[in-house]
Write the structure tokens for this entry.
Amino acid sequence: MKYILLALVISGALNSFGQTTEAEDRSNILSVMKLQEIAWSANNLEGFMQGYWKSDSLKFYGSSGLTKGWQQTLDNYKKGYPTKKHSGTLHFKINDISKIDEGSYWVMGEYFLKRTVGDANGVFMIIFKKIDGEWKIVADMSC
């Protein structure tokens, strides 16, 4: 009987190993987004893109249509925001973070770009997925 109890305790410990609470997940996702704000505001677009899944399967949907792939998304950002005066200072306002399933969340919010060439604001919905222990954006819809 004590071996069965010990097996159940060990099994429970192993099953919960590596799992996080939703509050921890949300906090980690917000940390990724805070690093993105900092990188973008320094016109470090490569640093900003570290929050995205570095894969050809990344999807970005915006006013110019669907973009597939990490590199193409970075190239589009570089084209649209070539200098600090174009990228400006980024601030996110998060309106909702909801769990989709184990290891994935959607985030809905607003972005605010304060720029010398004119401010730009909009809304977004992004999907985060935990990949190799890190939270990465796998899909982004911004307008």
Notes: Residues 22-41 form the longest helix (20 residues). DSSP finds five helices and six strands in the chain.
